[in-house]
Design goal:
Blueprint lengths: L20 H4 L6 H17 L29 H6 L3 H6 L22 E5 L13 E2 L3 H8 L1 H8 L4 E4 L3 E2 L2 E2 L4 H11 L5 E3 L16 H11 L10 H13 L5 H18 L18 H14 L1 E5 L16 E5 L6 H5 L20 H8 L5 E4 L5 H5 L5 E7 L19 H9 L4 E6 L15 E6 L6 H7 L56
Parallel strand pairs: 1-3, 2-4, 3-6, 8-9, 8-10, 10-11, 11-12
Antiparallel strand pairs: 4-5, 7-12
Helix pairs in contact: 2-11, 7-8, 8-9, 11-16, 13-16
Amino acid sequence: MGLMQFMATTMFTGQQFFLTTLDLVLLGKDPELVKKIGAATALETRATGIPYAFAPCIAVCRDPRWGRCYESYSEDPQIVQAMTEIIPGLQGDIPATSPQGVPYVAGKRNVAACAKHYVGDGGTTKGINENNTVIDWHGLLSIHMPGYYTSITKGVSTIMASYSSWNGVKMHANGELITGFLKNKLRFEGFVISDWEGLDRITYPPHANYLYSIQAAIQAGIDMVMVPFNYNEFIDGLTFLVKNNIIPMSRINDAVTRILRVKFTMGLFENPLADYSLVDQLGSQEHRELAREAVRRSLVLLKNGQSPDHPLLPLPKKTPKILVAGSHAHNLGYQCGGWTIEWQGLSGNNLTIGTTILTAIKNTVDSSTNVVYKENPDAEFVKSNDFSYAVVVVGEHPYAETDGDSMNLTIADPGPTTIKNVCGAVKCVVIIISGRPVVMQPYIDSIDALVAAWLPGTEGQGVADVLFGDYGFTGKLPRTWFKTVDQLPMNVGDPHYDPLFPFGFGLATEPTKSYAGTSTEVV
């Protein structure tokens, strides 16, 4: 089976949690770094004994209300195309002589990749997960398809079908797009895999006519089917359809050929078992440093001071007393988000090894600086303590898939209260931990500095590295930051484009001195 390794995702305690797909797009100017992250992910996945990763997600999220928007690199298809450089990181560099569309996995330190979810998953109406993407053929090709062109050129081994529909036709049953376009037109020679219970969801309610769903999906071109529970029903149904000549044997032969082609290139027959020599790769210091670098470069500075002449960042390390506040300041689960250990993610600091933003701040400031942590202080507490400045860390709680669909896109309580109480009483920098842009317009005037940190994973030290000036802010927004949800969907180039912060925006700062290294106590 595949492992949901779309960077922040992992199911093994102690494994390195890289930042999310959304954060990685901010590294698009350095594809080599993205490629290194793919290679590190492959090593840690292989170390668990799994040779297949369900990555990358090359959805083009056109509406942040979608609960899977953080799995998407950008609203811009060209950026999504550029980020497919993670595929040679996962699978290895494809030889120059390799035929178009043929899958390639370099060796035992690499994994088979999976481009997903084919196609149009990021364009559903109102961002509703698994819903209908209404768009013409030209729009589908120009917005949602480009990532697949480059993925196939780079030898991606597998492609996963989307739960969603295109103009009312379920993608798991869309033979025109799976067989006609993907396999025949684009000459993809790997295999197409269903999503989890993807066949069940061809009908509504799900599983209403499972025999029909099997027939529709297999004839459309699905080669491998993800059946988590009642596999006997699938096997019996498929056998019946083949024996009665409803599904031709040629279709079965095509699917088997494609699956075996990928297994051979993965080396599964020569090396079917886990390689225990890779166990030291899990959570290695080298990979943690790589993740920390990625966090630094993914941060986007949205505001810095009440005027350009009086910036708040970078913060001074040596000062009498500072306040760190907010529900997300000392919570690894919130930093990692969904698809971490558990499907919907977790809260707290007991799920894995890492450094929270609070701990990172304590690691970074001068030993004489008194760091006071209070999760949700009242205004009187803030006013009476004579803080030099405050760092407020708030945002979204973890979520995945449909559970993340949101029509309001507000930060979690008591985040708004914390911002009001702290930023109304002392100079403050607010760090947003979220999988997407969220409502910030009501608070922006009271905030002195605002940082989008997305879902930085385990390496919170990367946030402090930039906050205190060891490195400068360099990140740019990979998607539009709206003013109100009433504007959505709103993407760069739309006639009604009027964002709080436009696509590509991001302020820059210079390092205050050369970086000499920072100790990294965990949690």
